[in-house]
Each structure stands twice: as structure tokens, then as C-alpha cells.
Amino acid sequence: MKIIFLGAPGAGKGTQAELVAERASIPTISTGAIIREAIRTGTEMGMAAKAYTDAGNLVPDDVVIGIIQERLAQSDCENGYILDGFPRTVPQAEALDRMGIKIDVVLSIEVSDEAIVERMSGRRVCECGASYHTAYKPSADGKHCDKCGKELTIRRDDAPEVVRSRLKVYHETTEPLKSFYEAKGILKIVEGQEKVEDTTALVRAALGI
Ligand code: AMP
User: Fold this and answer.
1) What is the pLDDT of residues 30-51, one digit of tens each?
2) CATH for 2-26+79-111+171-207?
3) CA–CA distance from 9 to each of 30, 72, 86, 116, 141 (Å)?
């Protein structure tokens, strides 16, 4: 099964994608996570991407399309995958079509902008990729990662002014993908709930898993 998770930054698509991936035994592919890892390790691509992500802007299409092409060619993608954070523009979606990839479902998780700004201020992340929230999904001690014990940090692009600019980018550039996939008859919409497990129940019902 090949699934795309759409949704504004902070709508909870990463969390839901991980849960569905585990249940369906397929990998989650997050271009944001790949880019952050490249920035952390200081690769050429990471250094080029940093200025865009720090400002809450999108990394150019050719760069992310290259990342996704390379990642989808790996053997763990043979039985399907979840794309979390890709495509984010119509040209990126068209690139997937050109690659001959047939997506089964596109799931859009919808949350209001006000709720997102409030949520993002509480997000805490770990270098290992784990993500927490001070109110909705705290780590055991609130400061360290439950998985690896490292200290949790706040993503630079979760600062409120950056969140607002990321939401603007989402509405202008990514939201048109809903019509793109609706026209293909594969779009499903889920209203994001306050509790992670309530959204998960809706996501599972929408996907029939
Ligand atoms: P995310 O973790 O998905 O919110 O992604 C973090 C940042 O990485 C975004 O704000 C963008 O700067 C960049 N990024 C991730 N995926 C894409 C994409 N498909 N197209 C362009 N930029 C992306």
C-alpha cells in the first residue's frame, strides 16, 4: 500500500504516519527527517537546505525530488510506504506520477491554524527522530527522550513566527494538492482531534486497517 499523508505542519501527520506504518509493516518516509539528518551531519545537501528550513520555506523541488527518488529505490520500499511531507507542491506530485508511482490513498489531516500554532509551541524533539509534546505526549521526565535518553530540544522552525510562515506556505503551495488528488479520486479527509488516539481511530477507519 502506498499512502501519502497531507496536512499542515503540526497537524499530527508524522505521529499518525508512524502508527500506521507500524501497523501495516511498511516504512514511513519523511523528507523533513531526511533533510534534518543531512543538516545535522553537515552534508552538501544539508548545508544547501538549511537556510530554507530555518526560515520555514520549502526546499527547492529538484532537491526533494532527488531525495525521494533515491529513498524509494531502496529495498524496504518494495511492499509500499507512507510518504510524510512529500509531495508538498504540484510539481512534486507530478514528479511522482512521472516516476510511475501509483498512490493508493492520500489522507489529509485537517486542523485549524490557531490550534496548530498552540500545538507547535509545545513540540519537543530528539536527535533520534522521536517527537513529544509538553501537553499531549510528554516524555516520562519531560526533558529526555524515552527511547534513547538524550535531551529533548525545540525545533528552530517551531518558533511561532516561523510556524505562521510555514502555515502560509502550506495554504498557498501544498493545499492545492488536495484538488490534485481529489480529481484522481483517492483523497480522504480526517479531522484531527485533540487526542492522538482519537485521530488514530479516524485514520484507521479511513484507511480500512
Ligand atoms: P517537516 O518535518 O515535514 O515539517 O519538514 C521540515 C522542513 O523541511 C520544511 O519546512 C521544509 O523546509 C523542508 N521540506 C520537507 N519536505 C519538503 C518537501 N517535500 N518540499 C520542500 N521542502 C520540504
Assistant:
1) 999 999 999 999 999 999 999 9
2) 3.40.50.300
3) 12, 23, 12, 8, 26
Q: What is the sign of the dihedral through the CA atoms of 199, 206, 187 and 79?
A: positive
- CA dist 35 and 109 (Å) reads 22
Question: Which one of 59, 63, 89, 111 would you pick to mutate in the ligand 1 pocket, going by the greatest count of ligand atoms within 8 A of its CB?
Answer: 59
Looking at residue 119, its pLDDT comes to: 85
Distance of CA 203 from the midpoint of ligand 1 (Å): 22
User: Which parts of the chain register pLDDT below 50?
Assistant: none
45-55 burial code (b ≥16 CB/10 A, e <16): bbeebbeebee
Of the candidates 102, 135, 101, 98, which has an alpha carbon nearest to the alpha carbon of residue 118? 135
